[in-house]
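Standup notes
- DV: blocked on the single-chain target, sequence here:
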Amino acid sequence: MLIDSHVNLHGPQFDQDRDDVIARAREAGVGMMVEISDKLSTFEATHGLAMAHPDIWCTVGAHPHEAKDHQAVTADDLLALAARQRVVGIGECGLDFHYDLSPREVQARVFRVHVEAARRSGLPLVVHTREADDDMVRILEEEQAIGPFRFLMHCYTSGAELAERAAKMGAWFSVSGIATFKAAEDVRQVIRAMPADRIIVETDCPYLAPVPYRGRRNEPAYVGHVLQALADIRGWSLKDAEARTTDAFFTLFDRIPRPVPA
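- DV (later): unblocked, structure below
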């Protein structure tokens, strides 16, 4: 079974053909998708997709770009939404110092609120990090010292040192279509060192379409190309890569029942 661990199907890019996109994913062998919350104002749409489709689950949280609009959000607020059916993770949350669409100190404060919600709920934290390696590792290590929580470094393209230190804290990592880009050898080098039992795959659609679809709108149907890239990078067979990433996915997102093989 192919699994896309990070989709943004609630986005306006899919307003004209969302049902067709979901159908194409199923036709391509995608058996499960996790619809990611990027801000609480669109959470009802995110959750609605999960409730409407048996193969879609969802998270709750606010992207660091949106942190400025979530300064009053508490862990209790997130936990109340996380208690709903088919919510399986906290986030996407974290730090993005590339665009700085929210002040950095606000991003950090809102990120820590999400960490608290993950710790208290036991749900995995979906972490976004870009050009913020030093602050990210500091926050993760400080928060782990307060109490353990599980977390996923989503669409990982940051440095090797952050990856190594996050791995020591038990992090999972997700690989995206960036792994197929010709100029992304630094990303592939980090992927080679990731813990083999804690790697999953994603599209992050509608963004980051893999080769041969680069430059187009991304879809969950393309996640097989990401899986093939991971297999090639790690020297695994495609069957082995599928088995490893499936096991890692259900270990991380353990609120999702694993289908029983026919």
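- Follow-up: The mean pLDDT is 98.
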